[in-house]
């Protein structure tokens, strides 16, 4: 073969396959392509291949390995490969970071703008007037394009607003596109411009929360702004990292304490906030009136039109957003002195009318209508946007942390002080503390949620029924509004709990504990029914979603921004590789039940099922395999008879007549014992995966962190009934499996609990159960136990003791609760899934 003399000889390329041989015996006409310069792109780019991508993803995203540890790992790797004349995948941590930075997909770089210091400032200008402020942001238009191009959302995505009617012709509200807001705004868009016909409506969802980060000049406070779109289903927004994206850090000017109440300084901070939001979102303006083309998760290209939707934030920032006076409501015109009186909705039109009539008339607008006439709200810059109608309730900060922990729990303590004296009240609170936590100096949202799970049972013996009903109504409200789906019946239940709460909180007034209930955070509960109809289920618009997107591994602002950008790129590349068929879908497999290092509960990115319970992968080795020996080993001498009875029923030979042991099938296989099982169930109201799935671990082990642990669960016993009447509570004594005639039987030995009465306890609203024992005189202390199939179990259950008036011993351990108490509450406040099914 002749070679052009102008081209040097190609160097040898290591690691490449030889040129495929040419088979001259085959007479068919065909083309044989050169294997190297083939014009086939490297789909793993910028990585060399699958291993390098997975290594990067593992080190940077999954285990968050430090730079020093990455360098050491690469040095050891290179040292080991020197004998093969090969190198480590990366030279050092910087090479790994550079590879991530070269990823092209999912890119939305951070930008910065800075305030301009006026040139005409006098020599006596204050320090805060002479200081520039930086605002970091990403282009929201680019963020929307990235979300829309993410194929992970293909099955969790709506292309148009809709009205959901059930079989009874009742309207249902769940995801954002099922709400009234999107339908009404889509109508306005079409009526104003018929050329928008067939364009896809995209409602922008914004949330913000105050955070502290490190910068060159020290710690600075920022408003961290989050961004999403309403087309995503709530489950996708809650369960997918790229469903909610940090988009901006708004500067919060700070100065000496002497300026804290300076009107000019406070006005400057307000103006900076609104002008920053308007500048960041301005790239969306053109597509708010004229549609643009975007690729969607299903791969199709569509005309889309943007619209500002709900804004999620806590009350202090709602005051800033709405330009109102602290203590007033940002959504209605109720006076600060009596927030719960009927009032009209605030709106831009209402504000403009008052400005036209009263602007320049002293403090009339400020004092009488709670309007700051010096602030131009950012929403005035965008079509159809009205901040008063966009503000969404914040369940975590306003209701759980604000109203429950800061109001009701404190009022209960004040009541106990008034009734029992401060010393006795402190002793009671110490007794209550032992059931959920140690005393915290700073409460987080998770601490408040943990308190809600046990609070009613813990205080029921110290409070009158009226206060207990107040607490129960409020907690029922908190759990109801976290449901993932609402109809007119459910909305009525929400309104009823609000009415009951307002009725029974008068007990605190009568007891002299609290006289003023005009509290802005607590007042927001009256707006929840309208918010559900306007924006869909609140669990898709809660600050707990944005809080879960905080980057906790880094403190400095530059590290936070760069880390966030790199994580987004890795996730976007993974989605592309899945689309190319090179990776499995990003839905994580069910958690390994035998991995004791994993959390006992959490989200599962799996396909939707109502409920499924699976034994751990690996059986325990120290248990006898023989059925008789196993029964003796675990203290259950009747285990063989119970298993035979279970198998007899499983084989379809069950009968209501007495069954004799000799009629039972003989079990000869080995028995495998397990210390845990995984329950997976559909629970979109809790933190769950993209399909609404969640898991929890059910344990039955003689030693868990040094103490025995035998969890309780709910077993389905009567599917014709509703709620808890269709179930029974059981204590899991043994988890095991065996084979018979080629069929595997996963089972559990359970101790049954019996319901007390035919309705929940009227004081707490919770069902009461007690352990069931045989009534026979000669077996009075024998527990009612049986073997049931694992499929009978629905999920774990949280049984809270009926404590009684006596205090717990200071060193009492919770692992002894089932043995030391004779009655228990079925806590429907354990999680939102339990509240729905019980």
TrEMBL record:
Pfam families from the UniProt entry: Plavaka
Database matches in InterPro entries: Plavaka
Region (Disordered): 1-22
Domain of life: Eukaryota
The protein's name: Uncharacterized protein
Lineage start: Eukaryota, Fungi, Dikarya, Basidiomycota, Agaricomycotina
